[in-house]
Each structure stands twice: as C-alpha cells, then as structure tokens.
Amino acid sequence: MVVSSAVSTMDAGIAAPGDSAIDAASVLSPDQLLAAIAGRLTEPFPMITWARELGDLHAALISAVLNPQRHAPEVTETALHADIAKVIDKINSWAASYVRHSRCARRHTHTFGEVISHVAKTYAEAWWTVLHADCEELRHSAWVHLSEVRDGYEHLIGDIRAGRVQLPLGWRGIRHTRQTDSPEIDADVAVQAEQ
Fold this sequence. Notes:
Blueprint: H1 9-12, H2 30-38, H3 46-66, H4 77-98, E1 106-107, H5 112-132, H6 136-161, E2 165-166, H7 174-180, H8 183-194
Parallel strand pairs: 1-2
Helix pairs in contact: 2-3, 2-5, 3-4, 3-5, 4-5, 5-6
C-alpha cells in the first residue's frame, strides 16, 4: 500500500494492510481494476472513475472504428484517442504522488496511465470478441489474452509495492505537441515527412 507522506493513513481513510477495501492512496488490485473498468465499483475514488472512463472510451473506440457512420460527427477515432490521452495524463499525475517510486529499481517501459489504458483496451476488445465473434477459438483466445494482461498487471503491482520497478512519469507524445502548434508548422512537418 502506498501513501503520500503528506497524508497519514488515518486521515486518508486508508484500509489496513491486508484489507481488501479500496482506498484513494493505493493502486487497485487486478480484480478491483477489472471491476472498475466494467463499472461494477461505485466508490468515488479517482482511479475507479478513470478506469471506468478508459473502459468506456476503448469500447466507444471499437465501435467508432468498426461503424463510423453510426456516431455523432464529433465522436471520431481522433477525438476518442484524445480523450483517452487526457485520462492517461490524469492517472499519470495521480501516480506521481501516490505510486511508490524506487530510484534504484529497474525501469518499466510504460507509465501507470498507459498500463491502466492497456488493461481497459484489452478488456473492451475481449468483451467485444466474446459478444460478436462466431469463432469459439477466437473467443477463447480473447479471454486467455485478458487473463495474461490481468496477470501481468498483478506482477507489476507486486513489483511496485516491493520497490523492484520504477514507472516513467510520462509524455503525451508527438500528437500532443503537434496539436499545440500552429497550422503552418503542421503543414511544414507534413511536407518534410513526405520528402
């Protein structure tokens, strides 16, 4: 369990070690994360809210990619990716304060927000496959992959709590940088990329 040094365990209402209750200063267990993504947890903690948002956004993204005509004009693949990036940023900001950082630990390749987003994406894609695919082998593969991702998340959480891994703080990437540039700069970048 990770607690900000500025907040005591008593003041934050944090559960005792070994307690399965969810608290604002600890990361969600794998089962709690999947329940949050599915909307089965209603506690008003930021990670639960963000996990649910990511689950909904990734489900909407599947639908937007497969059936772009069935959505309002503002619900585009680009807009959904931008919304996902915003939620990832919120999680990364939260993680900077609440997720244990061990300077001597090995470095992970993804931020905490990217990890949560990957679990939510895998969950949404697995459920879509189970509900819409005719092939039993494909449905089974979707569940197996979701189980692998859940297990990977569980190992990552164990490594974070034991101080064996350090997560990067994050960077929104070139899309974010280009969105703040002027149209003239975007046109110049596009021309240079074509050359």
